[in-house]
Amino acid sequence: MTHTGQLPPRPLLDIAASVGRALRPAHAERLGAAMTSFVGPHGTDHLAHLVPAAAFTQQATRLLDAWATYPAVTGTALGSAVAAASHAHEQARRNPSLELVVSGPGSTVLHARRTEQVLLQLINEAQHEIVLVTFALHMHKGLRTALAEANVRGVRLTVLAEDHQDNHTFTGNPGAALAELIALRLRWPAAQRPALGAALHAKIVIIDSSVALITSANLTKRAAGDNFEAGLLVRGGDIAERLSYHIMQLRHESILQDV
User: Fold this and answer.
1) 75-94 and 10-22 helices cross at what angle (nearest 10)?
2) Strand 129-134 and strand 204-207: pairing?
3) 129: Cβ–Cβ under 8 A, 6 or more apart, which residues?
4) Which of 57, 59, 152, 185 is close enough to 259 for a disulfide, judged by CB 3.0 to 4.6 Å?
5) The model scores a pTM over 0.70
6) How far apart are the C-alpha atoms of 168 and 235, rounded to whole Å?
């Protein structure tokens, strides 16, 4: 099967988009322009060193390795995809969309969507990955159902929650809350905390590394509906992606650990 004159297949486009997001537009454009001289991936190894920077070499090598799996794709098609992804990401980074999200009492001067409504919508939108960060995790029917359906869709679920073994003043049980769900559960061990009593207090929902809900609300029924809570839903830009990378880097460095 040939892809000449057509868009690269979806798996290769996904990698091109990821590489484009990771590169500066000027570097992605330089790589893309150099790729147009090739009708296929053969003999392109040197392109990974067009820019003398380790980060560039790493990302370009990812792309070239993936290209080798689809040798019928032209350099023009793939290089254009990388450059376009980089420029689109830079444009979105400069213009993120922000939406206020609240819980608790309403007023006539503030019109915002409710935390529970937004949370469930985001989980239902997820196609690849959900990352949940919370102090308290008390599962309720709507949340459990949405997460179980995400499991069925093959969406990866990662949960970082406070744990009694790391904070003895905390009484929740995230393991019990996640029972029967397929999830990677992370903890912040007491030995990795800067001082006795330091708490895992962030409340973040990240969807597909592209949308983030940053809120004061824990993942509990009361916080989502009754408590006085406020947060921002961020679409576009690189905030969600950087938060996701932050968590994964902390895991890689064993500051956060698998349960």
Assistant:
1) 50
2) antiparallel
3) 155, 156, 157, 158, 206, 207, 208, 209, 244
4) 185
5) no
6) 36
Side-chain half-sphere exposure of 144, counting CA atoms within 13 A:
13
pLDDT for the residue 2 = 43
Nearest to 71 by CA among 37, 36, 39: 39
Q: Is 134 helix (H, G, I), strand (E, B) or coil?
A: strand
Asked if 19 contacts 63 with a C-beta cutoff of 8 angstroms, the reply is: yes
Encoded tokens for 83: 């450059």
What pLDDT does 6 receive? 65
Question: Which domains are delineated in the chain?
Answer: 10-94 (no CATH), 97-258 (3.30.870.10)
d(C-alpha 73, C-alpha 24), whole Å: 23
CB 8 within 8 A of CB 81: yes
Helix (H) or strand (E) holding 230: strand 229-235
HSE-up (13 A, CA, CB side) for residue 197: 0
- Separation between Cα atoms, residue 142 and residue 147, nearest integer Å: 9
Q: Which residues, given as ranges, of the chain have pLDDT below 50?
A: 1-4
Q: What is the pLDDT of residues 154-179, one digit of tens each?
A: 999 999 999 999 998 898 899 999 99
Amino acid code (one letter) for 162 = E
Amino acid at 104: G
What gap in Å lies between CA 198 and CA 233, rounded to an integer? 26
The answer to whether 213 and 122 have CB atoms below 8 angstroms apart is yes
Compute the distance between CA of residue 93 and CA of residue 25 in angstroms, rounded to an integer.
12
